[in-house]
Design a protein that fits this description.
The protein is mainly β. The chain has strands at 16-22, 27-32, 38-44, 47-53. The relative contact order is 0.20. The structure holds zinc ion. Residues 4, 6-7, 9, 33-35, 37, 56 line the site of zinc ion. Residues 51-73 are annotated as: Disordered.
């Protein structure tokens, strides 16, 4: 059983299904994890494979400096 590398949420416990698309082999399902990470799942007969995973929702990853303000001249 795999878990989310960002928050450790079990992949089988789907938090939110974003969309699903039928394919030749089964289904492609987009889901969102508890942390906001998007996942692409390939669903075939009896198996679910997470084929791609996005980053979690950005909360504190604002680029730039938060501790050392640039000195004014
Ligand atoms: Zn997660």
């Amino acid at each position: 059983m795999s878990t989310c590398p960002y928050c450790g949420w079990p992949d089988h416990d789907v938090v939110e299904t974003v969309s699903r698309h039928g394919t030749e082999d089964g289904l492609t399902v987009w889901t969102r994890c508890a942390c906001g990470s998007l996942q692409v799942r390939a669903v075939t007969a009896g198996s679910v494979t997470v084929t791609a995973r996005g980053r979690p929702r950005a909360t504190d990853s604002v680029p730039g400096r938060h501790s050392s303000p640039a000195p004014k001249v």
